[in-house]
Design brief:
heterodimer, A: alpha/beta, disordered C terminus, B: 207 residues, mainly alpha, 42% helix, globular
């Protein structure tokens, strides 16, 4: 039995602490693909009940086979023009995200949206999407959506609300809005801004407050300190050779992650040894996706990152730079941060003046952002890798404002409160005590897409439209403005935020289209054709704003640093730090009822369906808490209990808590999932917590140990230097025995031959592809219990490995889907020939022929075949059925399924090309995962075409097939990952080049097939 | 016991053979599906409209050359003529009701493939497969019935040997068309020009 941790080159790759310890229980778990007891019916059903059920179904089964079921065809009465059933129609639109936006193209089938893609024409997302955008379809078709208008629980209509509001506004206009407040999230939208202005004119004494639970407030305050006013940064990461991130998870959770992932990938992509690649340093107190792609990662407690920024600034000054505000940095001159690390990072930055970038994350206080501005200015990065855009009419979030509002509410000064698209009872700062304050307000109105904690305490609850069913507009972070256009009439009688704001501002009840059109006709477009073009493209061409980069104000920055000094204390075991982190999946909790997002394993902890307390292994040992054991955390008088999960590489004495869970009563997915940590959240990070183990081991659905590949070399990586010395390192890392085939080889020289390449160098591990695949292929959701049993259905999964030791590990990601092996082990063992190969290289899966022996999955070395153990699809609520892609079969119980290279897209493209008498063009056909990837890590195409992008990548020296030494001949191959460490820093988890295998290349035919 | 063993064995073997034959013969789509002629909500006669009046199939099934579905026409298509014609005909009552109330007519599907099969009408029409090949002579049907088994084996028979089933594009809806003497030559040219090669891989229909 080979060792479970495998050395590839000189690295040891492992998946979890369990694997490192290699206990006998773990071994047993690993060796069975489906854990012990998983196939047994473990629910308490008595034998008698079982026989009864079985007997009944047998009796019924006999009789139903006689009559053919009647299927109805129900056409329209009046068919809409230009809608051809079976041919999808695409609409360009945009989704608002805080004060930014993401451009999307929505595919609609049979008049309803079924899939979201990125809009390549949008300059600030460039066709990429993230996992939340991909999951928006489920938000639209959420069976637990708020569908009604109610007043105190009694059913009303929109017209009733309009009448009520008009009565209210009579008295409110007399008092000029005294006692009136509107609370909504941040936005950057010309129409909403216009309506807000009108509202302010109509009710000058009313308050309009914007608040996001997770916001960029600190950054705004920092930039305001540095330059005099808050501005929106516009980054150009692709131009930066050296990037230093201070707690900014810029490829996953921070604003505009989609664009930044793409920019970073563009700076990182390497095609030949002559290419250069950027270098990323990250300093963080959590373990993040960006941390996994960094070349150097320093973990220090979140609260000390400010002091680190100061130390970095002082270090830069040693190289002759003058950092604005550095006179306030004297308290931070003496520190205990790793001096070599600091020196190396500073030196690198200085050597790349104008081609570097320092970033700070949203958890860091304003002072850090101000200092970072000053650092970038001193490094001459302003106007090169970062510039700034005025916020214009964007409405930004203010935490202080919501606390003030709560105080006003408690004091009885607010008589009418309108909340639009927010949930302050759940996510307002804990010290605001919003729920209590809400009780004091006489008239409360909540417009919401979802039943929520705030809704149960509000008088009026209005059903809000989803962006896919409403008109609106939105500005991206660079100023580019798009129209949000609907793809379907509102599914319920909902109204949009635009329509509500219009009513509030003017008292007129107009359709959203009219409000938006008014805004646009007033100056953004001058003729109908221009409007149509915006609807078609999804963007108003040339609407990017000008940017500027004013010099930093040294005095203001010093003042900020002096008034709000950075903490100098470090957390200890009795004084733990708690870091409240926005969820990579649920963000601030708004997506809690989205089953796709719940089930996608968290990119770092690989936990699905709940949030956990992430701690380092040293802290776990010190607290004497075991993996998955409950941890009782006490902070600020609040006690919470969460399962503890050890994340190697986490900083000691710090517990990371994920926001967005523990939402009771809002929907079937969110109920019972995780623990609400907002009650403890008085700031983004706090100190002074204590934690004790509870002794209960929780059953955490953690996918990190599923489908372990038992010590085989899967991810191949090396440093850039190694690559330059030995470009073929990836292929030489593994000994290839003399490979013979038992069967006669097919000739793959005719027609289309499909292949796919994943560039591990640019893959960030964000999981957008996983959810995209789920959306496109109707992949079912199985629930927490089945995920624990290893039965998650994701056709595409991200395997996450740790490299190094338990104390300080680096994370690497690898997307794995069906490798479409030319010599597929699965095809060779199917007893009924349900899985065979087609002439274009695809491994086909014929669902109706499958009888469920699961031998194919048993034989698959990649473990990419997913089996429907239960009938996950027969109880879909009617609304959820609309989300399914009509081009893909819905699978029932008992059949195997797996990635099909988006066969439906292949066939559609082939037929389209055939009707036009041509071949499919390279790039015309994209698989769902390829299309979703913000970093463009996946390339798919025809390998028979020597000029196609995928052929060129397969010819690259870094190209390798996973487990190709097993002679599976996978059509899916990977480009080996490269690291670009600073030669002056001995990277502790990656310390030398690959070791060439004995026997060299190709091997002589004489020796036995070896175990590698 | 031993005396009866041959008899028991014989009955057993005969029993199994009969069961196999039973399902093979009476379980095949040729028996269970061919001849299926359900009652429709409207007494619509293809013999009258497509046969006697000579309407082209594609007047109503208008998207068949662009889409995978051969769409059933909306009530509006019927009303194109029947706003003026047949005002007293009681057979048209359900159609007028549908038009007036906005509730669609619920037709019963006749030629049906299982849900796990993907069939694309447009591809077949592009390849020169006439309507009659799969649907039979619908122009002669008062009530639509299924005349072909539509089983996978039956589909493959044509996919493996399409030549006799292809016709010029102008004759797709012509029920009377018979192949002329130079058909073989025509098919050869036709297939080359339009790049027709019916797939025999599972991925063509099973996705």
């Amino acid at each position: 039995m080979p060792p479970l941790t495998k050395k590839t080159g000189n690295n040891t790759y492992w998946r979890s602490a369990n694997q490192l310890e290699d206990t006998p229980e773990f071994r047993e778990w690993i060796e069975r693909e489906f854990p012990e007891g998983a196939s047994e019916l473990s629910d308490p059903v008595s034998r008698r009940q079982f026989l009864t059920v079985m007997g009944a179904s047998l009796a019924l089964a006999g009789l139903t086979g006689c009559r053919r079921p009647v299927e109805k065809i129900v056409p329209f009465v009046k068919a809409p023009e230009e809608q051809v059933l079976g041919v999808p129609v695409y609409y360009a639109s945009a989704l608002p995200r805080g004060t930014g936006a993401i451009g999307v193209v929505i595919e609609t089938n049979e008049g309803r949206p079924t899939k979201v893609e990125g809009n390549e024409l949008h300059p600030y997302s460039l066709g990429g999407t993230d996992l939340q955008t991909q999951a928006e379809i489920l938000n639209l078709y959420d069976p637990d959506r708020e569908t009604l208008f109610t007043d105190g629980g009694a059913l009303r209509s929109w017209d009733d609300f309009v009448a009520w509001w008009r009565r209210q506004s009579l008295s409110l206009s007399k008092s000029r809005g005294e006692g009136l407040a509107v609370l909504t999230g941040s936005f950057s939208s010309p129409t909403l801004a216009r309506l807000k202005k009108t509202f302010a004119k109509t009710y000058p004494r009313a308050r309009f407050i914007n608040y996001d639970a997770v916001s960029d407030e600190n950054r705004d305050a920092g930039i305001a300190a540095a330059t005099g006013r808050p501005m929106q940064p516009v980054y150009a990461l692709e131009k930066a050779d050296i990037i230093v991130s201070l707690d900014m998870d810029f490829v996953q959770t921070e604003a505009d992650a989609v664009l930044h992932a793409r920019q970073f990938a563009d700076g990182r992509r390497v095609m030949s040894p002559d290419d250069s690649m950027n270098r990323l340093y990250i300093i963080e107190g959590v373990h993040s996706t960006t941390g996994s792609i960094a070349d150097h990662r320093l973990h220090i407690p979140t609260r000390r990152i400010g002091a680190f920024a100061a130390a970095l600034a002082l270090e830069l000054e040693k190289h002759g730079l003058t950092i604005a505000g550095s006179d306030a940095l004297a308290p931070y001159a003496v520190h205990d941060f790793n001096p070599k690390w600091l020196e190396a990072a500073a030196k690198d930055l200085v050597e790349h003046k104008g081609r570097s970038l320092v970033l700070a994350g949203r958890r860091q206080p304003a002072g850090v952002h101000a200092l970072v501005y000053a650092i970038n200015a001193a490094l001459l990065n302003l106007a090169k890798t970062v510039s700034y855009r005025s916020y214009g009419d964007a409405a930004r979030s203010y935490g202080a404002a919501v606390r003030w509002l709560a105080d006003e509410m408690r004091a009885g000064k607010i008589k009418t409160l309108l909340m639009v698209g927010v949930n302050p009872v759940y996510d307002a700062p804990a010290d605001a005590r919003f729920a209590e304050a809400l009780q004091k307000v006489e008239n409360t109105v909540l417009m919401t897409m979802h039943t929520s904690e705030t809704g149960t305490r509000s008088r009026w609850v209005l059903s809000q439209t989803h962006p896919f069913e409403q008109w609106g507009d939105v500005r991206a972070a660079d100023g580019s403005v798009s129209v949000i256009q609907p793809t379907i009439e509102p599914l319920f009688k909902s109204k949009s935020d635009v329509e509500l704001f219009g009513l509030l501002a003017t008292g007129e009840d107009k359709r959203g289209y009219e409000w938006v059109r008014e805004t646009w006709d007033a100056g953004l477009v001058h003729e109908e054709d221009a409007w149509r073009r915006v609807l078609h493209d999804g963007i108003l061409a040339g609407s990017r704003s000008r940017t500027s980069a004013p010099p930093p104000n040294s005095r203001a920055i010093s003042a900020e640093l002096n008034n709000n000094p950075f903490p100098l204390d470090a957390p200890t075991l009795q004084n733990l730090e708690l870091v409240f982190r926005e969820s990579a999946k649920l963000f601030d909790g708004r997506y809690a009822n989205n089953s796709w997002l719940m089930e996608v394993p968290d990119p770092v902890s690989k936990v699905a369906w709940e949030n956990v307390a992430l701690i380092s292994s040293a802290t776990a040992k010190a607290l004497r808490v075991k993996q998955n054991e409950g941890l009782r955390i006490i902070s600020g008088g609040v006690t919470l209990e969460l399962p503890a999960v050890v994340v190697p590489g986490m900083v000691d004495n710090s517990i990371v808590l994920e926001l967005g869970y523990g939402r009771e009563g809002i929907g079937r997915i969110a109920d019972g999932a995780g623990v609400n940590v907002y009650p403890m959240r008085t700031a983004d990070f706090v100190i002074g917590a204590t934690a004790v183990p509870t002794g209960t081991i929780h059953k955490v659905a953690n996918t990190q140990d599923h489908n372990a590949m038992e010590g085989r070399p899967l991810i191949r990586e090396a440093t850039l230097e190694t690559y330059r010395e030995s470009p073929k390192f990836a292929q030489e890392m593994v000994h290839m025995p003399d490979l013979h085939s038992l069967w006669k080889d097919w000739t793959w020289s005719e027609g289309y031959q499909w292949g796919l390449v994943v560039d591990l160098n640019v893959c960030t591990g964000c999981n957008a592809c996983v959810v995209a695949c789920q959306s496109e292929n109707n992949v079912p959701v199985v629930g927490q219990k089945q995920v624990r049993n290893g039965r998650e259905m994701h056709w595409l999964r991200l395997d996450r490995y740790y490299v190094g030791d338990a104390e300080d590990a680096r994370m690497v990601n690898q997307p794995v889907m069906c490798q479409q092996c030319e010599m597929a082990p699965c095809e060779q063992v199917c007893p009924v020939n349900a899985t065979v190969h087609d002439s274009e290289g695809l491994n086909m899966m014929t669902y109706n022929r499958c009888i469920g022996t699961r031998y194919c999955s048993n034989n698959c070395p990649y473990k990419v075949r997913r089996f429907n153990f239960f009938n996950y699809t027969n109880e879909y609520p009617e609304l959820l059925k609309l989300a399914q892609n009509p081009e893909v079969t819905i699978r029932s119980r008992g059949v195997m399924e797996k990635c099909s290279y988006c066969l439906q897209r292949i066939n559609r493209a082939k037929f389209q090309a055939k009707t036009e008498n041509r071949q499919v063009r390279d790039g015309e056909l994209k698989t769902a995962c390829q299309q979703a990837c913000p970093a463009q890590a996946i390339t798919f195409g025809n390998i028979n075409d020597k000029n196609s992008a995928v052929s060129k990548l397969k010819a690259n020296e870094r190209n390798y097939g996973m487990l190709s030494e097993l002679n599976t001949r996978p059509r899916t191959t990977y480009l080996a990952k490269l690291l670009n460490p600073n030669p002056e820093l001995a990277e502790p988890t990656f310390d030398s080049e690959y070791v060439p295998r004995e026997g060299g290349h190709g091997g002589s035919g004489s020796h036995e097939r070896e175990h590698v | 016991m031993n005396r009866f063993l041959p008899a028991i064995a014989g009955v057993f073997i005969f029993g199994i053979a009969f069961i196999v034959f039973f399902f093979w013969y009476w379980g095949s789509p040729k028996f269970t599906d061919v001849g299926y002629r359900p009652v429709q909500p409207v007494k619509y006669s293809h013999r009258l409209h497509a046969g006697d009046l000579g309407m082209d199939c594609r007047y109503c099934h208008s998207q068949v050359e662009q889409s995978r579905h051969a769409n059933i026409p909306p009530t509006q298509t019927c009303m194109n003529c029947h706003k003026q014609i047949g005002l007293d005909n009681p057979n048209l009552l359900p159609v007028r009701e549908s038009w007036d109330t906005g509730k669609p007519i619920e037709w019963v599907r006749v030629d049906k493939l299982p849900d796990y099969v993907y069939f694309n009408h447009a591809a077949h029409l592009r390849a020169g497969v006439g309507c009659i090949e799969c649907h039979g002579n619908v122009r002669q049907m008062d009530v639509v019935e299924q005349v072909k088994p539509l089983s996978m084996g039956w589909c493959l028979d044509c996919h493996r040997n399409p030549d006799t089933h292809l016709r010029p594009l102008s004759e797709l809806t012509n029920m009377e068309w018979t192949p002329p003497p130079d058909h073989a030559e025509f098919v050869k040219r036709f297939k080359a020009e339009r790049n027709i090669n019916p797939p025999e891989d599972c991925s063509a229909c099973h996705r």
